[in-house]
Design brief:
847 residues; alpha+beta
Length: 847
């Protein structure tokens, strides 16, 4: 069993909740994880992993440090990005001399980041969004502030307490072992005056190595693993696994004893925790890393470190050799295992697994300033490494997502965040996430001086220029491009499970390969050059098949026995699926006698990203105004301005009344006619997808504003033909709700008649199976009724002043006249200086 001290922090600061112990019965009552299917056992093969630091992501309590509550609040953003697994850097109590990798308590949360209860709530919220949680299991070393080390240094040599760490009377033991952090450490031994001996450390001197040769230590590690798995964690990254065990006369890397420890951990995992995953961090050559998979009895995944620097070399040299060489030397791994691939992460871009000549070359190209170098690597983020070149960022990312393995995205790289090379150690690539152009980049409302690290503020990468909010609004931003790439990869399991085959091409500036499984074959072509390149591909084995470019579904000429020619733009990358038959995407010719079909053919198709909530806040609005709004108005029976008189139509005011994947809006459209007169019309809009969109295009094409294509397919329709939008308009009246638009405001009001018991409208009182029925449309109103209870009458033309029908209804009600429909309430629009205008009425239905 683990020593009780493992659950205690060396820091005097008390955590916010009662501290559990390894025997605490609460560990067996963790939050329920999503029900797993048989296929879920290999979920990590198809995953998109996103790496983030709790303290760098979002600060919920404005103390300058990110926390679990803040991270939980941003899970919707990660779900919208499309990731399926979230990897967190260490969040345990720690002196933070190595950003949390110096752990002082394995069984708790650092007080700055929250509590165990906050962590449980985070895991539950992540699982609700189908996002799995990957955390660190740092078993190579602890902090020198850990109670176990404090006790070990005071215990006599040879005692069980002392044997939790590795000690020696001399610093000459293990003389053949290399020093990893050569910039800061001169030896792997440090003398401890309290113990009177040297202790062993492969990393910083304040991180003494645990003695994994000792079975009691392995038992303690397994108890820690079970603690977090019992709380619902899905996967564990095993830090620095090549260095777990030591033996005199070796270099103390990749020892058989280390593999025995990993096999023991895997057995304990498989015995009680199905569908969990172990990820090995082994910065070694692929042939050495292969052993960490075992025969599917050690780690499920391992990082492919040597591939990453060679991808940067390839685009700089404009030659594919660096990539093909390392991938050809990558050994086969068990079918249930997987490589983890990345471009950048929280550490330096490591150059340990390159030759001395290659390292010098990488330093000269990517780290001309010595401040950019650390240990045997380069401490820079992706965008600065590539000089903020969008084409090169897209090329490397597309290759990463197409190679065999599971891709990892480092937080902020999806928007092109920069770094600060003048912060110490590797902190320059761990700065606050940039959410908006607001104070501190939207990360925290704390005083800037309180932040754990300053946000990036330079003119190119500063949060005023690079932030999530700005890129969410722009459908062609790097963020939206990343969303589309992630969505496309998730649709094709061949990327995570298929084989890799290089395709012959005489031009070494072009990289061509196939991804194949029993379901499909995908051809990937990448131009590593800054110039246009020709490519003659040897595809005779696929003669007769048709390449279809996957992002735009464009069919290319059928493959023949002769070389297949392509012309590639600078840094261009294409994914083709090889099909036996054409896609049949050509629109069907429709007869002129079918007016509905003619309308569908005339609808503009908007290319929009996966996020639709900002469709009226960006350049897409201008496209709608230019291509869709005028023809849409001309098709409506309530449009009274005359079809020939439209000179310009534009959205003059709007607000979102429904969020989520299929938002809805309440908008005002201003129309200028040829005589210079203006009129305003109420146009609720609902964005629908799937069967709802198909039904609208088939049954009510005249009420469709535009089709949506791109990352998702759908349509923008008149909101009066969407039940949920009608519910929300009715609800605004019921609750007498006031909502702010861009220029004005909308307020629901209820008719008050104290002398009579008039029923108040309440959508909650309407049965859940309520049904909206659309009535006849005239030149003034669009009418919809729900369950023969209430009638919603949308007055299309907005004119200031008292609505005549509303005024009459008020007068009749005051006279006690009951032979007309009872007025329930109204929806009014107002702007500064313009007075009120009635948008809609709600009446009781007349049976």
């Amino acid at each position: 069993m683990v020593d009780p001290d493992l659950a205690r922090t060396a820091d005097a600061q008390e955590p916010k909740t009662t501290e559990p112990t390894p025997n605490d019965q609460r560990l067996t009552t963790h939050d329920q994880r999503p029900t797993a299917t048989e296929e879920d056992a290999l979920w990590y093969k198809d995953a998109i992993i996103y790496q983030a630091h709790v303290r760098a992501f979002f600060d919920s309590d404005n103390d300058g440090v990110g926390d679990f509550r803040g991270l939980t609040q941003k899970l919707d953003y990660l779900q919208g990005l499309g990731i399926t697994c979230l990897w967190l850097l260490p969040f345990f109590p720690s002196p933070l001399r190595d950003d949390g990798y110096d752990i002082a308590d394995y069984l708790n949360v650092h007080p700055s980041y929250g509590t165990l209860e906050d962590f449980k709530a985070f895991v539950r919220a992540a699982h609700e969004r189908q996002i799995r949680v990957l955390i660190e299991l740092v078993i190579n070393h602890t902090s020198d502030r850990h109670p176990l080390f404090e006790r070990a240094r005071r215990a006599p040599p040879g005692s069980p307490e002392r044997e939790f760490y590795v000690w020696s009377d001399t610093d000459e033991k293990f003389a053949g072992t290399r020093i990893i952090f050569s910039d800061t450490e001169k030896s792997n031994w440090t003398f401890d005056p309290v113990a009177g001996q040297y202790y062993w450390h492969r990393f910083f001197s304040h991180q003494p190595d645990l003695n994994l040769n000792n079975p009691a230590v392995v038992d303690a590690v397994i108890d820690v693993m079970k603690f977090w798995l019992d709380l619902g964690v899905d996967a564990l990254r095993l830090d620095a696994v090549p260095y777990l065990c030591v033996r005199e006369g070796t270099i103390n890397e990749n020892l058989p004893e280390t593999h025995a420890v990993l096999k023991r951990i895997r057995r304990e995992l498989d015995a009680a925790y199905p569908n969990r995953m172990l990820l090995a961090e082994a910065n070694q050559w692929p042939s050495d890393v292969r052993a960490y998979f075992g025969e599917n009895d050690e780690c499920h995944m391992a990082f492919h470190f040597p591939l990453m620097p060679r991808m940067f070399m390839a685009i700089q040299q404009e030659d594919r050799h660096a990539i093909t060489e390392i991938l050809n030397q990558t050994p086969d791994i068990p079918d249930t295992c997987q490589w983890a691939l990345f471009l950048r992460n929280h550490d330096e871009l490591t150059l340990e697994m390159v030759t001395d000549e290659e390292r010098d070359y990488m330093y000269s190209i990517y780290a001309g300033d010595p401040q950019m170098r650390l240990n045997l690597g380069i401490r820079r983020r992706l965008a600065p490494l590539l000089e903020n070149s969008r084409p090169r960022i897209e090329l490397l990312t597309a290759m990463l997502f197409a190679f065999p393995g599971t891709p990892i995205v480092y937080y902020g790289d999806e928007i092109g965040m920069g770094d600060n090379i003048y912060l110490g150690d590797r902190n320059g690539v761990r700065t606050p996430m940039q959410w908006s152009g607001d104070r501190n980049g939207g990360f925290s409302r704390a005083d800037p001086a309180r932040l754990y690290a300053p946000p990036i503020m330079d003119p190119v990468y500063g949060y005023q220029a690079i932030n999530v909010e700005a890129q969410e609004r722009y459908p062609f931003s790097l963020l939206h491009w990343m969303k589309r790439l992630i969505a496309m990869r998730k649709q094709h399991r061949v990327f995570g499970r298929g084989s890799l085959e290089f395709v012959g091409c005489a031009n070494r500036k072009v990289l061509v390969f196939l991804r194949r499984d029993d379901r499909e074959t995908i051809l990937v072509v990448a131009n590593l050059s800054s110039g246009v390149q020709p490519a003659a591909l040897d595809l005779h084995a696929f003669a007769g098949l048709i390449p279809v470019e996957m992002s735009g579904l464009t069919e290319f000429p059928r493959i023949a026995e002769t070389p297949y020619f392509l012309t590639l733009g600078p840094y261009a990358s294409y994914w083709f699926t090889l099909q036996h038959e054409p896609m049949k995407l050509t629109p069907t010719v429709t007869a002129a006698s079918d007016p509905d079909a003619a309308i569908v053919e005339s609808l503009p198709a908007l290319l929009v990203g996966a996020e639709w909530q900002t469709v009226l806040d960006s350049g897409t609005r201008a496209v709608l105004e230019r291509q869709a709004l005028g023809p849409f108005l001309q098709r409506q029976p309530w449009f009274t301005a005359g079809s020939a008189s439209i000179r310009r139509a534009r959205f003059s005011d709007w607000m979102r009344i429904r969020g989520g994947a299929q938002p809805a809006f309440l908008s005002l459209v201003a129309v200028d006619d040829a005589d210079g007169r203006e009129a305003s019309f109420v146009v609720p809009l609902a964005l629908v997808s799937g069967e709802d969109a198909e039904r609208a295009l088939k049954q009510i094409p005249a009420r469709v504003l535009a089709r949506i294509t791109g990352a998702r397919k759908g349509a923008i329709i008149d909101g009066m033909h969407d039940d949920d939008t009608c519910d929300r308009l009715l609800g605004m009246v019921a609750r007498e709700e006031e909502m702010t638009m861009r220029s004005g405001s909308v307020r629901g009001v209820l008719q008050r008649r104290p002398e009579r018991n008039i029923e108040r409208v309440d959508p909650l009182a309407v049965p859940a199976d309520r049904k909206w029925i659309r009535g006849a449309v005239d030149q003034s109103y669009t009418v919809a009724s729900v369950n023969d209870q209430y009638v919603l009458k949308l007055r299309r033309r907005v004119e200031p002043g008292q609505n005549p029908e509303l005024e009459i209804a008020h007068a009749l009600a005051e006279q006690g006249f009951v032979r007309t429909p009872s007025l329930i309430g109204a929806l009014n629009y107002s702007t500064a200086g313009e007075g009120l205008a009635t948008m809609a009425l709600v009446q009781a239905a007349v049976l």
